[in-house]
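U., I forgot to send this yesterday:
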Amino acid sequence: MILQFFRRRLRPALLLCATLLAFSATAQQPYTAPALSRPDSWSMILVPDPQTYNKFSRNQPLFELMTQWVAESIDSLKIKLVLCTGDLVEQNEFINPDGKVGNQPSKNQWEAVARAFSHLDGKVPYIAATGNHDYGYKSAEIRITRYNEYFPVDKNFLTQKMLREVTLNGQGIPTLENAAFEFTSPHGKKMLVLNLEFAPRDTVLTWAAGVVNQPKYKDHFVIVLTHSYLNAKNEHIVREKYLLKDRNYGAAIFEKLIKPSKNIRMVFGGHIGAPDDPRAHIAFRTDLNAAGKKVHQMVFNAQALGGGWFGNGGDGWLRILEFTANNTVKVRTFSPLFAISPTTQQFAWRTADYDQFEIQLD
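Result:
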């Protein structure tokens, strides 16, 4: 009877000890810094929506830490291009922040995001999409934006050297909001990146289709960068609340531009999220284009991680896309913020199957 009593008492304690030991063993795994898996690979960095970093003064240095890390990793990771999914600021033209939703007026937000990307100027080309928060007074009431003021064509001469095509924005001005950039990968593949405004207008999609169908680009590997594209269920977004009169979201972009193409092979977007839920910030799907080629479509965001919409901005998460010589893309999710200190390095990688995977290109 006494023995049974002690067994009942000891069993929970033993289970607790085993759990703590298992957690300790996991937590003690050595940190491995980002590195290419093959010496002949090269990488592209995908930066999620930075709006929550820039709306609070306390968070702005965290986004600078991320771009500084990219600058320091250009050689070791052979970074050839940086893409940002849009929503560069919380409000495009707002002069009276309440201190709760954010404590920085729009001018300070635009200055902060431009300053952060300046760490890459002259070092590596980057392309930043526009999101709904980058238009209107707070969020896309009308198509006015200060994007061109802070991201003009000559901000980074390396990006300017890649520029091949451009069309007018919603204010009738030629800007990088809708532009095509060409480069040749280290593997010799001709690549074209189409940057499209938030909820692109029909005229923009017509222009983009005309670009990818030009004979000089017909054999290029085309990537589309736009903001609102997939939801967290991996579905093309059909409609949203924004009142812009001429607008196309993911489903319409796919039907009007992506699917009819023969050379669009990847699409990147951002936009989605829910407080402290990584799964709500990501999406992925593969469809076929008119040539029967796979189009891999990825959404990556992090803005409501690290404390929700009013937290630290996204815990420093970004994605490293390693393009290998055998036609695969290795996707890894990494935080320079966690990696900077031995105390938090154990949290610097997200290794779930939806955060660390390979894409086979055809």
